[in-house]
Design a protein that fits this description.
Helix 2 runs parallel beside helix 3. A 7-stranded mixed β-sheet has the order 2-3-4-1-5-7-6, sandwiched between helices. The longest helix is centred in the C-terminal third of the chain and has 22 residues. The chain has a single domain, classed as Peptidyl-tRNA hydrolase (Rossmann fold), CATH 3.40.50. Helix content is 36%, strand content 20%. It is of the alpha/beta class and 200 residues long. The two termini are 24 Å apart. Monomer.
Length: 200
């Protein structure tokens, strides 16, 4: 597979406020915090972009990190505003989000596809006018597969149990390692690295 459009906008999904900080739905925020540290940048709230924004230069190219502060179901408002301002194509956008269909410790990357009821993805797809952005799906498990009686809406708004948090943290570390590949457009190498680790 040849190189594709290098990623220029990395979005982490979550809900604002200390009460949501450690909840499963905020896995995208957790990853973005780590990436900002790796790129030696920090977030500040930008009203025009409806979110916390961090900027970095990698090989002379500007990279934008975004944590929408709109609540999950309005994430597209922030993503759309940033993409329009910087003239990013959807193919240059990577959205990191929690994924019910993957177990804690698993991660998958894909371009396009449906939103599987994830309100953040649904709103971003509407704002960009296409599903053709990249998704980094961070496994948090599903209450059924984890033998929990919680409804899904309640499950995602609670912190992971200790035995789930550790593999989620390990997944985030694996994602951090492949970010440099994505910024160069080497999606194949990044995807292979992430998906091979799932099988170990």
């Amino acid at each position: 597979m040849p190189l594709v459009s290098p990623i220029r906008l990395i979005v982490g999904l979550g809900n604002p406020g200390p009460e949501y900080e450690r909840t499963r739905h905020n896995a995208g925020f957790w990853l973005l915090d780590q990436i900002a540290g790796d790129l030696k940048t920090s977030f500040s709230f930008e009203k025009a972009f409806f979110g916390n924004v961090a900027k970095a230069r990698v090989d002379g190219e500007q990279i934008i990190l975004l944590q929408p502060m709109t609540y999950m179901n309005r994430s597209g408002q922030a993503v759309g505003a940033v993409a329009r301002f910087y003239k990013f194509n959807p193919e240059q956008v990577l959205v990191a989000h929690d994924e019910l269909d993957l177990l804690p410790g698993q991660v998958k990357m894909k371009q396009g596809g449906g939103h599987a009821g994830h309100n953040g993805l649904k709103d971003i797809q509407a704002a960009l006018g296409t599903p053709n952005f990249w998704r980094l799906r961070l496994g948090i498990g599903h209450p059924r597969t984890l033998n929990l009686a919680q409804p899904v809406a309640d499950f995602v708004l609670h912190p992971p149990r200790r035995e789930e948090q550790t593999p989620i943290d390990q997944t985030i570390d694996r994602c951090r390692v492949v970010i440099p590949f994505l910024l160069k457009g080497d999606v194949e190498r990044a995807t292979h690295s992430l998906h091979t680790a799932n099988e170990k």
